[in-house]
């Protein structure tokens, strides 16, 4: 039972981190921690026919050859992590979806310096929202994320209902060829379209893993799309699954999952009602395109617990401020393709081209002097972004440090709870509302990393 084993490994590592943390806390006097998060090089078995050199995070000092650990935090409680860089290139950590202080946001040259090899950086913040989030570098991301640096964050709320089991799924692809060796990380002609897909599809770094879960039980499945390109259309067969949270925030009225699109950066929390018969399987699949395939499956174990979806209370809402639409200022945000030009080289990796733009301005790369913000926002004021996707491709647009609510769209009827990432469909026009309640420079970008790195990036300055 991999989920339990992974959990036990993580707990063992956590024990070590807490022991180390105790000493530092004694010196600092106040906050516990930090948890040491070591970015490192390792070898892992991703395909059957070879060993792949990967980048991963481990807890503490010990070498770690598996996927980055699930980091567990508590809503409203301080969390401290020391990033130690044992890669051979600079890196940082961005805490995707956490509404924390700008200085902790992990964007090099904008919110913090690069963390060079052998160096470290101390993160300290208090997550205000409970739910499913994730972490990844914000430097040379096509390589660093593509080679393994994507991990899941679970922010717990003591008021959350209890489930019979929890399974965390980190979905991602790898661009590997024969012998588990990397092939070219991207093709420019794909970067200028939907992005370059991986060749090996995994959940928790495994192809089609199978998880045991209590028969007839209610299982919270936390699904995180951490791939650099792939948009999934998920569905469950062989069991009923209710959608209870999207992008970290509880849905007001949980509903049965049929098919749902989930773009890079996005999360879905399901409550899966396991089949009753011992050994019976439920399958999570990707139904995008004409050849559905299995992402992971769940095998019923033990005598049936005979549970019902109605047995669990809804998840408590997060404290996301609602925009005041009567005073909100409207800001247009246009996603477009741009004339192709050569991009400037960057310490955090440039793909060498510009194909995309926000409001007609292609991001020039992570330079010491960032370009002007898309707009300056006033702290505490409400805004409506009028986002227009003027391209024939879907773009998962992610805003750092803030959550926004989708008010309307010409392409969707279901309006999700507040989110940090909206998957804009081709030619979609959507209005999203937010309260600019977190000061600082907040990046907004497409989470198809080739799009992010070839121009589809900008930022808002909140002062
Ligand atoms: Cu998930 Cu700018 O990041
Ligand atoms: Cu995009």
From TrEMBL:
<dbReference type="Pfam" id="PF00394">
    <property type="entry name" value="Cu-oxidase"/>
</dbReference>
<keyword id="KW-0479">Metal-binding</keyword>
<dbReference type="InterPro" id="IPR006311">
    <property type="entry name" value="TAT_signal"/>
</dbReference>
<feature type="domain" description="Plastocyanin-like">
    <location>
        <begin position="66"/>
        <end position="159"/>
    </location>
</feature>
<dbReference type="InterPro" id="IPR045087">
    <property type="entry name" value="Cu-oxidase_fam"/>
</dbReference>
<dbReference type="Pfam" id="PF07732">
    <property type="entry name" value="Cu-oxidase_3"/>
</dbReference>
<dbReference type="InterPro" id="IPR008972">
    <property type="entry name" value="Cupredoxin"/>
</dbReference>
<dbReference type="InterPro" id="IPR011706">
    <property type="entry name" value="Cu-oxidase_C"/>
</dbReference>
<feature type="signal peptide">
    <location>
        <begin position="1"/>
        <end position="28"/>
    </location>
</feature>
<dbReference type="GO" id="GO:0030288">
    <property type="term" value="C:outer membrane-bounded periplasmic space"/>
</dbReference>
<dbReference type="InterPro" id="IPR002355">
    <property type="entry name" value="Cu_oxidase_Cu_BS"/>
</dbReference>
<dbReference type="InterPro" id="IPR011707">
    <property type="entry name" value="Cu-oxidase-like_N"/>
</dbReference>
<feature type="domain" description="Plastocyanin-like">
    <location>
        <begin position="211"/>
        <end position="275"/>
    </location>
</feature>
<protein>
    <submittedName>
        <fullName>Multicopper oxidase</fullName>
    </submittedName>
</protein>
<dbReference type="InterPro" id="IPR019546">
    <property type="entry name" value="TAT_signal_bac_arc"/>
</dbReference>
<keyword id="KW-0560">Oxidoreductase</keyword>
<dbReference type="GO" id="GO:0005507">
    <property type="term" value="F:copper ion binding"/>
</dbReference>
<dbReference type="GO" id="GO:0016491">
    <property type="term" value="F:oxidoreductase activity"/>
</dbReference>
<dbReference type="Pfam" id="PF07731">
    <property type="entry name" value="Cu-oxidase_2"/>
</dbReference>
<dbReference type="InterPro" id="IPR033138">
    <property type="entry name" value="Cu_oxidase_CS"/>
</dbReference>
<feature type="domain" description="Plastocyanin-like">
    <location>
        <begin position="371"/>
        <end position="461"/>
    </location>
</feature>
<dbReference type="InterPro" id="IPR001117">
    <property type="entry name" value="Cu-oxidase_2nd"/>
</dbReference>
<keyword id="KW-0732">Signal</keyword>
């Amino acid at each position: 039972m991999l989920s339990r084993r992974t959990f036990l490994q993580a707990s063992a590592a956590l024990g070590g981190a807490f022991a180390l943390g105790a000493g530092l806390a004694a010196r600092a006097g106040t906050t516990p921690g930090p948890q040491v998060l070591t970015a490192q090089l390792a070898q892992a078995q991703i395909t059957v026919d070879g060993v792949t050199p990967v980048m991963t995070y481990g807890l503490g000092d010990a070498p770690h050859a598996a996927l980055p650990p699930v980091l567990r935090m508590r809503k409203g409680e301080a969390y401290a992590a020391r990033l130690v860089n044992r890669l051979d290139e600079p890196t940082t950590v961005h805490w995707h979806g956490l509404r924390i202080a700008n200085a902790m946001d992990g964007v090099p040259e904008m919110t913090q310096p690069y963390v060079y090899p052998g160096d470290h950086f101390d993160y300290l913040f208090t997550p205000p929202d409970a739910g499913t989030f994730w972490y990844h570098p914000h430097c040379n991301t096509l390589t660093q994320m593509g080679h393994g640096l994507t991990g899941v964050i679970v922010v717990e709320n003591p008021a959350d209902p209890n489930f019979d089991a929890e399974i965390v799924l980190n979905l991602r692809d790898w661009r590997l060829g024969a012998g588990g060796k990397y092939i070219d990380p991207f093709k420019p002609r794909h970067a200028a379209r939907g992005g370059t897909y991986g060749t090996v599809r995994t959940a928790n770094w495994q192809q089609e893993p199978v998880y045991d879960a209590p028969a007839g039980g209610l299982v919270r499945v936390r699904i995180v799309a951490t791939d650099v390109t792939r948009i999934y259309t998920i569905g469950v067969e062989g069991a009923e699954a209710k959608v209870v949270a999207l992008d970290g925030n509880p849905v007001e009225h949980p509903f049965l999952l049929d098919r749902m699109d989930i773009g890079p950066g996005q999360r879905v929390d399901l409550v899966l009602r396991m089949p009753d018969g011992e050994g019976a399987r439920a399958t999570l699949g990707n139904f995008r395109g004409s050849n559905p395939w299995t992402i992971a499956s769940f095998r019923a174990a033990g005598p049936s617990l005979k549970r019902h979806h109605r047995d669990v209370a809804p998840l408590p809402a997060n404290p996301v401020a609602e925009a005041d639409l009567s005073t909100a200022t409207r800001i247009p945000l246009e996603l477009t393709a741009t004339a192709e030009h050569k991009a400037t080289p960057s310490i955090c990796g440039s793909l060498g081209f510009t194909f995309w733009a926000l409001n007609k301005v292609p991001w020039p790369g992570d330079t010491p002097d960032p370009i002007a913000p898309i707009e300056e926002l006033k702290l505490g004021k409400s805004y409506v972004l009028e986002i227009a996707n003027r391209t024939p491709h879907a773009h998962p647009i992610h805003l750092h440090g803030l959550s926004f609510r989708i008010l309307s769209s010409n392409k969707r009827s279901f309006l999700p709870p507040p989110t940090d990432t909206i998957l804009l469909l081709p030619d979609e026009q959507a209005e999203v509302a937010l309260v600019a309640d977190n000061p600082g420079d907040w990046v907004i970008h497409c989470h198809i990393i080739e799009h992010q790195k070839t121009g589809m990036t900008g930022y808002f300055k909140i002062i």
